[in-house]
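fyi for ur records
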Amino acid sequence: MNTQNIKILLANDAEPVQLSHKLMLTEQGYRVETAGDGFEALDKIETFDPDLILLNLTMSGLSGIECCHRIKSNETTNRIKVIMISSSTEYSKISKAFAAGCDDYVVNPIDRAELLLTVNDMLKFSHLKTV
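which gave:
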């Protein structure tokens, strides 16, 4: 898969995690923008137009749940795939993430291979649905 034209928005308020994930993705050739909270993520969606969003479940300001809900409730952004990332394995939080519209849920800490496989699979699925 040619990753050079694929844009990923990474929204996470934990800077070390954000930087680590960004490095993993940019090394693979993805174009990556970052956001420190849900409000910034919503702003960046308008200008960056990502193909995929990696969204932290719990962020200061606007939570990942609420941000995802807004993305999936908007006709112009609901096509964007959202992968929710959290350290929580609680069923209630996972079910809230899917109820908000996320397309996948990954538990932190996530290793390089798992992150890249999840992103790649989600992008392949996204491509198949639009063909």
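The chain has a mean pLDDT of 90. thats all i got for now
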